[in-house]
């Protein structure tokens, strides 16, 4: 597949409601899309960096800059998705930008050859069970209303964002209102210290599936210490930046579950390696989410159909985040999303919807 160039397209997609985590509040998804253009097909990748470097060091303006200045020029001679990471290996970091570029090339390649991303990655299911991530609210009543709405929509697992001052009480309230059968977990997005272990151990009473990333992303030994002091399984998100990092965290006892996000680890091919490392160690994985549009969602659903993804992911329906998505919407069916069956990532942007939310475009010829 001969590539002729790449388009960088920045979009601004309004969220249905503000989404608050321990990092901050978002009201609009400021996202970068990468379109790889080849002789016979084009492909899309979504960069999951946010406007500001709050989840990780990456942010949208930096992604645009590093793609334009270094990554796209390095694509000369690249013809397959598997060649992207080696071509970018000398550049440190910027995994979200790398992932978007690799996904775009991989999508174009698979479309050229009529193959699906799901099949390429090794998916074994045609639909995946879905959970939903519920942000921090102003009141418990507001939280209970939101959780009730998601359960009514059919979500099979609830994840509550927590931070100091919003942790034990909201979990207790959800358990009391909706019962012990709801699959429930929490995500702290690095908001605690290992000295909070006794406080966090209060969560053990609520039979949670897991507590996600309680400590700083670099504090692997802290997570291992915490895992000895709390019974709730520790899951890592921000800390797991590669298959090597996953192997180290597992062997140090820092986690017993792993959240896989392709943007965080540099792409879907590295995500598959993390899946393989975890399966080999008996560690369950699940698919995280970064408020993706339908483009990123499609690829995440394909990944979540691999056999080691044994817990429901944050692969929510499009309506969880967007009133109008830039692709045909993903709609929940009995708590599941169907794995796309079309070539490549299996979906394409709707031209009018895409144009309506486009902030800027830039064409880079190879
Ligand atoms: Mg998380």
From TrEMBL:
Q: Which residues form a coiled coil?
A: none
Q: Which PANTHER family match?
A: O-SUCCINYLBENZOATE SYNTHASE, O-SUCCINYLBENZOATE SYNTHASE-RELATED
Annotated protein name in UniProt: o-succinylbenzoate synthase
Q: Does the keyword Ion transport apply?
A: no
Q: Name one GO biological process term.
A: menaquinone biosynthetic process
Tell me the ranges covered by the Mandelate racemase/muconate lactonizing enzyme C-terminal domain, including all copies.
140-233
> What keyword terms does UniProt attach to this protein?
Lyase, Magnesium, Metal-binding
Pfam families documented for this protein = MR_MLE_C, MR_MLE_N
* EC number, as in UniProt: 4.2.1.113
Q: Which cofactor does it need?
A: a divalent metal cation
Q: Which GO terms describe its molecular function?
A: metal ion binding; O-succinylbenzoate synthase activity; racemase and epimerase activity
